[in-house]
Amino acid sequence: MKILAIGDPHGDLEKIKKIPIENVDLILLTGDLGKADFARKRYFENVKRKKEGLNKLKYDGKASKIAYTEISDSTLNILKYLSKFSQIYSILGNVGNNMIKDSEVKKDEKKYKVKLPYLGREIKKIKIFHLAINRLRKLSNLKIGFLEYFIDTSWVKEFKPSNYKKSMKKAKKETEKAKRILKNFKNLDILICHQPPYGILDKVSGKYGAPKYYIGKHAGSKAILDYIKKYQPKYVFCGHIHEGEGKAKIGKTEVYNLGVAGHKIIDLPQN
Fold first, then answer.
1. What is the rounded distance in angstroms from the CA atom of residue 261 to the CA atom of residue 238?
2. Digits of tens for pLDDT over the chain (271 positions)?
3. Local structure of 198: helix, strand or coil
4. Residues 204, 216 contacting (CB under 8 angstroms)
5. CA nearest to 34, candidates 64, 15, 9
6. Is 32:70 a contact under the CB 8 Å cutoff?
7. Predicted model pTM
8. How many CB atoms lie within 10 A of CB 121?
């Protein structure tokens, strides 16, 4: 079975078009499908302003409309193109998650008093695309685990956000949930996760506009690292830390951080 794994597309259709997709049986995506330049820039600006004791830039109806439209349009462009070639399975990353649920979109429409695109509805029209959220899928006798993005307690300890206690409380809840899901992912051929394992292809640099005090820190997950060490899936494909793009080995497991629309083609026997 010929499998194509693609790193976080972030709406970069031109990069996607350069990937040799013909004759693949399955396409796997590591999340962050849409372009989120506006939202990313605004997030890091506010992180910096909070650190300097300044008020955050307000997120009003205009800003919400820009962010939603950018992510939605670019996500659909990517999926419509890839759906010409093969079945697609993807996890959720940390970009545009609230846009998938109609209830969240309605909430933002009411909050910002603006009409917003319903990405989830449009995605459902692409029948060949499957959003796999914290699920084990058996595809042609291959076991593939799909783990959505979560905030690991290791991230909170490493980056020490200003709202440390609140962040740690949320991270503990999300990390325990991730551990429970991973415990069910035994004997995997492939694990698809958003962030890399802690200390492996996960070091932040200033290449993509991260704040200075982020640089050199590890943004990976210790829960994912512990899982890989114990259960040794054949392959792990991730993204999230774009500057960490590359390959590493943890025991017998091959780990690929595919960065922004990097790719890896593997051919696995279907038993």
1. 11
2. 999 999 999 999 999 999 999 899 999 999 999 998 898 888 888 878 888 888 888 889 999 999 999 999 999 999 999 999 999 999 999 988 888 999 999 999 999 999 999 999 999 999 999 999 999 999 988 999 999 999 999 999 999 998 999 999 999 999 999 999 999 999 999 999 999 999 999 999 988 878 888 999 999 999 999 999 999 999 999 999 999 999 999 999 999 999 999 999 999 887 6
3. coil
4. yes
5. 9
6. no
7. 0.93
8. 11
User: Which residue matches tokens 């990390």?
Assistant: 175
User: H-helix or E-strand containing 5?
Assistant: strand 2-6
d(CA 215, CA 154): 16
| Distance (Å, whole) CA 249 – CA 246 | 11
Q: How many domains does the chain have?
A: 1
Q: Which domain range does residue 213 map to? A: 2-267
Amino acid 258 reads: L
> What is the spatial distance between Cα 132 and Cα 20, in angstroms, rounded to a whole number?
24
Q: Strands 135-139 and 190-193: what pairing?
A: unpaired
CATH number of the domain that 215 lies in? 3.60.21.10
| Best CA proximity match to 226, nearest among 257, 258, 191, 260 | 191
Q: Would you say 246 and 202 are in contact if contact means Cβ atoms under 8 Å apart?
A: no
Kind of pairing, strands 87-90 and 129-131? parallel
Q: Long-range contacts made by residues 53-56, C-beta under 8 angstroms, separation at least 24?
A: none
Look at the block and give the residue holding tokens 């905030």. Answer: 151
Backbone angles phi, psi at 139, to 5 degrees: -115, 110
Decide: 16 and 81 in contact? Cβ < 8 Å: yes
Q: Are 26 and 3 in contact (CB under 8 A)?
A: yes
Pairing of strands 235-238, 190-193: parallel
